[in-house]
Amino acid sequence: MYAIETKGLTKSYGKSRGIIDVNLCVNEGEIFGFIGPNGAGKSTTIRTLLSLIHKDSGVARIFGLDCEKDREKILTEVGYLPSEVFYYDNMRAIDLLNYSASFYKKDCTKRIRELSDALELDVHKKIEDMSLGNKKKVGIVQGLLHSPRLIILDEPTSGLDPLMQQTFFELIQKENQRGATVLFSSHILSEVQKICDRVAIIKEGRIIQTEKISELQQNSYKKVSFTLKENTLEDFQMQGAARIEFQGNSVSFIYRGDCNLLLRQLSNYTLLNVDISEPSLEEIFMHYYAE
Questions:
Q1: For 4-212, CATH number?
Q2: pTM for the model
């Protein structure tokens, strides 16, 4: 059984694009990255999973349960942090958190204190007096206070300073070690690379790739750059090369394919120097988007 499973999940907004035939399988106990630029369909997918909006077609399940028919049962097992948090300004954070905890039929007092201390959050302040970063901390505590089996994070680090981001990542990794499954949506690749096991790349509402982070970086992709003795690049072509960039008598590109073929093709040129290295996740991601 998967923690999250979708088949052909589709949601449109009239003439505006939503998501199209989204197929995801998130294993229990993994930290799964969901990446793409703003507007790619990440939040629409998440809101459809949580039945905050209703799908047009397809299947969406969490822990084997139908996301719409079994919504109430599912939500007792899920912690959700939206990309933007909005609260009753006149409430103190502790009152809001205690109110949230009342839905879960368990004593969350100790958990609220532990999470607040870890995030250096003053829960006795009114929400209207808080900075954006502290409001985000309230959202994190609210999402985790009932020790959920599944944690869904939509752009979770916006508003947090770099030191608090690191604390947040450590907190999520501890939750994962406890047994929680995590769906981590972001447009910042370094975040996903830091803590995720696998990643799905979404482009214009469609999943275009799902792979292990390690395989995505090592799956025959190479970053190649070389300089020629003379500028004879006008007719440069190379099978397997993408995102080709020229600068004087130098060329760089992302290569996918057989390394032996790459070396044979390079042997056709008189080289001053050559560099073949592993591309960053960012460069691979941009390669997918260029395609």
A1: 3.40.50.300
A2: 0.80
